Amino acid sequence: xxTKECIFCKIIRGESExxxxxxxxxxxxxxxxxxxxxxxxxxxxxxxxxxxxxxxxELIGPLFKNxxxxxxxxxxxxxxxxxxxxxxxRVSQSVPHLHIHIVPRNxxxxxxxxxxxxxxxxxRETILEIQDKIKKAIERLLV
Length: 143
Ligand code: AMP
Hints:
The chain has about 140 residues and is α+β, with helices and mostly antiparallel strands. The chain has helices at about 5-15, 55-80, 125-140; strands spanning about 20-25, 25-30, 40-45, 80-85, 100-105. It has a single domain (about 5-140), classed as HIT family, subunit A (2-Layer Sandwich), CATH 3.30.428. The protein contains three helices and five strands, in the order αβββαββα. α2 (about 55-80) packs across α3 (about 125-140). The termini are far apart. The relative contact order is 0.21.
């Protein structure tokens, strides 16, 4: 797939709407539009690489440092008990642009194995509220 057609490249370029919670030189994080739990984020490298196996070594440290920051921000901003971090590589990967799922978790939240139910946000206001909470938590963590 070319970067022209890639939905995540479009969000990175600002051509498609993304509920962005974090951005730096190498990566962007935004809310998953069909979350496993409210606040489910996707962290993507700005360069188009398909899988974890494709990215240059020097990106791994900075990218996972940001995954840690966003995980801490979700815990802090949304007051959840834990975080799931995962990457589908090719199999079960519906968008061929590397993305790290960062998912808020609580005990007994109904997520079981990899056959997790999805739901839609109630409305745009709810989306904006959660986006704001995570962004503010990131700002606090970066001070
Ligand atoms: P995967 O199935 O691991 O490739 O995950 C792709 C994720 O991207 C899914 O959880 C989708 O809900 C999410 N997704 C697809 N399109 C968009 C979009 N335009 N904005 C935000 N999330 C998206």
